[in-house]
Amino acid sequence: MIVRRVLLVATLLAGFLSGAPAAAAPPSCTAPVPSDTKPGYLVADPDCELDGTPFTALPGATVHTGVRAGAAYRIEVPKKWNGRLVVYAHGYRGTGTTVYVSNPELRQHYLDRGYAWAASSYATNGYDVGQGVRDTYALVGLFRQVTGRSAGKVYISGASMGGHVTAVAIEEHPRTFAGAMPYCGVLGDAELFDWFLDANVTAAALAGVDFEFPLRPDAAYPARFAGQVARIKAALTGTEAGKTWSDVLERRSGGERPGFPAAFAYWNAASQGGLPFLFSVYPGLSGGTAGIAPGNLTDNRRTVYRATDRWWPTAAERALNASVLRVGRTAYPDRGLEGVPRVDGRPSVPVLSLHGVGDLFVPISMEQEYARRAAANGRSRLFVSRAIRTAAHCGFTSAELSRAFDELVVWTDRGLRPEGDAILDRRRVASATFGCRFTVGVRPEYSPNGCGL
Questions:
Q1: Alpha helix positions (H), 285-349
Q2: Phi, psi (5° rounding) for residue 366?
Q3: Is the pLDDT score of 449 beyond 90?
Q4: Are 42 and 100 in contact (CB under 8 A)?
Q5: Whether the model pTM is above 0.90
Q6: In three state form, how does the secondary structure of 28-88 look?
Q7: Which pLDDT score is estimated for 11?
């Protein structure tokens, strides 16, 4: 069963809140309460799920809930606790002002194997990775405080933006965690926003539509942009230029690989706010700030766009690169926890990561970027990446995630480095069987998939 479907930009989320600890009887849901740290924010009741049903302990476990420093938290400890803790970092939740806590996908798996787990709502929404790191790290001390016990080993795992949180957390607190499992993660920090820039400016150039990147968008810009997108869509739908755009995006998002045409169609069919998905996340709509950085984070001044893998660019590729809108950054990923924190690719603990082959929200190129940075820092031995044949964002099965977690634990305990995929080998990525090895179950966009499943 797929445990996460597409997370386009999750803004249709609301919840409930209370700062009281979990009681023996099922708790009653209370309304969100004002944050005591973030003016204008509400904190949802950690004793309740988003649908209003009570959050209760699974059989044989005990739960602890509450609110700390404007962030709701949940902690669950099995009766036969093995002395270890997993902290979970959630992904992007839009820009609403109600924060809420949710359970990790592997909740049952952790408890079945004796692990306690803890999760935070974070005190803010938006692309606030720094706050996510602070609140997720705080769970380690909070666990000790509310349970009266210290964890012997602590693991961290996070999805999507939570993968960014995970990658930064193990660099900020290298002695705290025993291992890390990001999945569908933004492991390339600002490279993700460059990807959104690339998708838009190449589409405009191939469609012959004048395009803008305002550092301070005026009130009329969204409507103007929507008109530009309509003309681009008309010019690229079912045309040779549209096929070229697909080829360019395939190479910008990770290279030629199986299933990309279906993944491209899957994401082009998605929409948000009345715009095709890949246009709805255009950095120019926010001046390239991601809503949190102090300036434009994106840059394509030296990017060479290719639609083929030939040794030399073709005449058409040279024409594309000459006509595409070029944008220069005015800000950089932060070396600390402000703005959009930088991921150095300097892990001090084993990292086992999973990524969808056809994910175009957070493409597999993020995984490749982390692998390159880890290699540059002499840390390749601490990073293993697994490609999963899905086009959905974070569309993994429980079997895929649980196997990865179990093998990460073996790696940290016994030093047995698990197997992964050669994501930096262009030939292997392009092979018909790329992504087969660790995929459990067949997704429609990969059927028939050539894996012999």
A1: 315-323
A2: -65, -40
A3: no
A4: no
A5: yes
A6: CCCCCEECCCCCCCEECCCCECCCCCECCCCCCEEEEEEEECCEEEEEEEECCCCCEEEEE
A7: 32
Neighbours of 328 (CB within 10 A): 11
Rg for the chain (alpha carbons), in Å?
A: 22
Strands of the sheet containing 33-34, edge to edge, are 33-34, 42-43, 98-99
Predicted confidence band at 290 (pLDDT cuts at 50, 70, 90)?
Answer: confident
Average pLDDT over residues 385-389: 97
| Banded model confidence at residue 1, pLDDT cuts 50, 70, 90 | very low
What's the one-letter identity of residue 40?
G
Backbone angles phi, psi at 376, to 5 degrees: -65, -25
Residue 355 phi, psi dihedral angles, 5° rounding = -150, 145
What type of residue sits at position 412? T
Q: How far apart are CA 432 and CA 56, in angstroms?
A: 45
Q: How many Cβ atoms from other residues are within 10 Å of residue 382's Cβ?
A: 21
What the block records as the tokens of 365 is 């190129």
Please state, in angstroms and rounded to a whole number, the distance separating the CA atoms of residues 411 and 238.
Answer: 48
Q: Which of these, 12, 88, 18, 106, lies nearest to 51 by C-alpha position?
A: 12
Q: What are the beta bridge partners of residue 33?
A: 43
Are the beta carbons of 48 and 65 closer than 8 angstroms?
no
Cα atoms in the Cβ-side hemisphere of radius 13 Å centred on 295? 9
What pLDDT does residue 6 have?
Answer: 33
Per-residue pLDDT at 153 exceeds 70: yes
Taking the C-alpha atoms of residue 207 and residue 265, their distance in angstroms, rounded to an integer, is 18
Whether the predicted pLDDT of 19 surpasses 50: no
Measuring CA to CA, which residue among 192, 89, 189, 85 is closest to residue 147?
85
User: CB under 8 Å to 53, separation ≥6 — which residues?
Assistant: none
Quick one: which H or E segment has residue 356? strand 351-356
- Cα distance between the two ends of the chain: 16
**CA pair distance 10, 194, nearest whole angstrom:** 21
Span 51-60, average pLDDT: 94
Which DSSP category does 154 fall into? E
Which pLDDT does position 451 carry in this prediction? 82
pLDDT at 3: 37
Pair 185, 199: CB distance under 8 Å: no
Mean pLDDT (the chain, rounded): 92
Strand partners, 62: 77
pLDDT-derived band at 452, boundaries 50, 70, 90: low
Predicted confidence (pLDDT) per residue in 344-377, tens digit: 999 999 999 999 999 999 999 999 999 999 999 9
Structure token pair of residue 414: 């016994």
Tokens representing residue 327 in the block: 């944008």
φ, ψ (nearest 5 deg) of residue 220 = -85, -5
